[in-house]
Write a structure and sequence with these properties.
5 helices; alpha+beta; 7 strands; 7-stranded antiparallel beta sheet; 34% helix; single chain
Length: 164
C-alpha cells in the first residue's frame, strides 16, 4: 500500500535521484541497499523486478515522523523531464560543480522518485499544519544512500536545484 493511501501520512514534497539506466542497482546491490536503509528505517512494500532490481519500496522513520515511497522510473518521460530541467538551468550562471552535474545529466535516463510524507498525527491542528516545518534529515539520508548506490544526482524538481 502506498503512503498516499494511508491517512496517517500527508505528502509534502517529491525529490529525484537521476542516473543512467545501466547503473540501476542489481540484485546484490539492491539487497545491500535495502539492508543499509533498514538500519535506520522500517522498509516495507518491497517490489522487485524479475532480476531482483528495485521497482519500489516504502521507508518509515518514526524518529523523524517521516516516511517515503520510493519508485523506479525509466524511459522517454524521464529523459524529457531531464532535458527540460537542463534547458531551464542552463540559462543561469552555474558554479563548476553544478555545471559538471548538468553535463552528467545528459547521460541519465532513469530515476528514483522519492515521495516524502509527514506523519499527520503529530500536528496540533489543520491550521498549524501549513506552518509546521518538516525535518528533511531522513529524506536527505535516503537520497545520499540512493545516489551512492547508482552514482546518481539528487534533484529537487520543484525548485529546479541539485541536492547533495
Amino acid at each position: 500500500m502506498s503512503l498516499f493511501e494511508d491517512s496517517r501520512y500527508q505528502w509534502r514534497e517529491t525529490y529525484f535521484v537521476v542516473f543512467p539506466r545501466s547503473r540501476r542497482p542489481d540484485h546484490r546491490s539492491t539487497t545491500e541497499l535495502l539492508q543499509r536503509l533498514a538500519g535506520d528505517y522500517e522498509v516495507t512494500n518491497q517490489r522487485l523486478d524479475a532480476q531482483g532490481r528495485i521497482e519500489s519500496f516504502t521507508l518509515i522513520s518514526t524518529a523523524n515522523a517521516a516516511a517515503m515511497d520510493v519508485c523506479y522510473l525509466a524511459g522517454p518521460d524521464v529523459t524529457e523531464q531531464i532535458e527540460q530541467f537542463i534547458r531551464e538551468i542552463s540559462g543561469q550562471p552555474l558554479a563548476a560543480p553544478d555545471q559538471q552535474r548538468v553535463d552528467e545529466l545528459r547521460n541519465c535516463d532513469a530515476r528514483f522518485e522519492i515521495f516524502h510524507f509527514q506523519r499527520c498525527e503529530l500536528t496540533v491542528s489543520a491550521e498549524d499544519d501549513n506552518e509546521e516545518w518538516l525535518d528533511p534529515t531522513a529524506l536527505f539520508d535516503v537520497m545520499r544512500i540512493l545516489s551512492d548506490a547508482c552514482g546518481g544526482i539528487g534533484m529537487d524538481p520543484q525548485s529546479g536545484t541539485f541536492v547533495g
